[in-house]
From TrEMBL:
PROSITE patterns: UDPGT. Keywords: Glycosyltransferase, Transferase. Residues 457-485 are annotated as: Disordered. Belongs to the UDP-glycosyltransferase family. Its EC number is 2.4.1.-. GO terms for molecular function: UDP-glucosyltransferase activity. Pfam families: UDPGT (PF00201). InterPro entries: UDP_glucos_trans, UDP_glycos_trans_CS. It comes from the Eukaryota. It is an enzyme of class 2 (transferase). This is Glycosyltransferase. CDD domains: GT1_Gtf-like.
Amino acid sequence: MASQNRELHVFLFPFMAHGHMIPVSDMAKLFAAQGVKTTIITNTLNAPTFSKAIRSRKTNSCGCGIEIEIKTIKFPSQEAGLPEGCENLDSLPTPELAGNFFKAMGLLQAPLEQLLLEDQPTCLVADMFFPWATDAAAKFGIPRLVFHGTSFFALAASDCVWRYEPFKNTSSDSEPFVIPNLPGLIRMTRAQVPDFIKDNIENDLSRLLKQSKEAEVRSYGIVVNSFYELEPVYADYYRKVLGKKAWHIGPLSLCNRDNEEKAYRGKEASIDEHECLKWLDSKKPNSVVYVCFGSVVKFNNSQLKDIALGLEASGLEFIWVVRKGKDDDDVGKEDWLPEGFEERMEGKGLIIRGWAPQVLILDHGAVGGFVTHCGWNSTLEGIAAGLPMVTWPVAAEQFYNEKLVTQVLKIGVAVGAQKWVRVVGDSVKKEAIEKAVTQMMVGEEAEEMRNRARVLAEQARRANEKGGSSHSDLNALIEELSSQS
Ligand code: UDP
């Protein structure tokens, strides 16, 4: 396989946010392991994220050298009205600057086209946040594939909500509706629908998403970080009803096999990986709750306090990742923790301030459940680790992912977040947190969820093996692209 695909050269162009960059560095490893020449295009500040992620990959499964190149383009901070150095979504000083960030994405067409001209790749896989990439690829006569970074379920569900506007027929924000035309009688509420859809708001983001939908229709197809066995009904729905070509090639995180690869994803961890593993090694199997809300969500101090109190009241052991690190203004001020909390939790609870080696932790046998904001990478990493979840969606398409976990897969308990809120999150009280975490970890229902999650993890593993659904789809994609090049 390695030598057959030498002619194929894939350009990968991820959106500048960790939730999009992490799966793309895994995707690069997968393509390269199949002998495909792979180039990641990014800006200078984000380039080390990729070079570190791929540093441990020197050979593919056949022992051949693998080829992943990283090419950089200048990030137009100044032109987009962003402060210098603000080149990743998680470094926005205020959520209000998100519009400027998306404006910057629109300014990357010319530099990308310059690289397309110089390198003449045979395919462009570009993030959904670059709608103009379909036209850019067309100029050079190459196929453009879209990467959304989410599930088939979320793609199908959000399309139905956008198309049929079921929230218009409800009398209140909290009255549930069934998503029309979507298989499975999936329920959600108006409050959980993104504001730019339910309130028909015209802003930079809503315009961009509209353009993205139009560009997707004209694109060659999509690549999805999922596996067929996880959501067959929705994978079929996307392909047959929405009529687009799609290749499922996930869970992408499973391409990281050793501890070094699992520990470095996106950023250097704020805890020594050996220290973290030692802590986990001292715990009983399935006893630890892992709590993390991804790379963007930031809760306020009162919410953090409720999380602390909820965890303490559950009596369970935990690892809790809090996005407060050395770069935060309030560093040193620990007023988000209840008094004496860390002393009381000594040996029982580990707080990681900053960035955790998430996949390494999730894959450890001591971890028994995952409290997640339902970002798709985290959700799928939890599934790949065979874990039941407490779902706590905040923004983006996270409420759809919650419905997949709780209503379709039945491997999760909803904490009760009611409202789609940009970045900061709906407030959830400590009693609800204690209740959901206990429900996930203790008792018959917990055991049933864990058993179902384990079956999915095994299916995920098999999907990535030779002959498995994701492995076969990746090869089918490579063959199709090769036949065109
Ligand atoms: N992640 C991590 N350590 C952290 C927080 C996040 O490794 O402390 C990784 C996580 O494993 C996942 C990604 O960052 O791969 C977050 O993506 P996701 O789609 O879950 O959420 P987002 O950050 O886009 O909201």
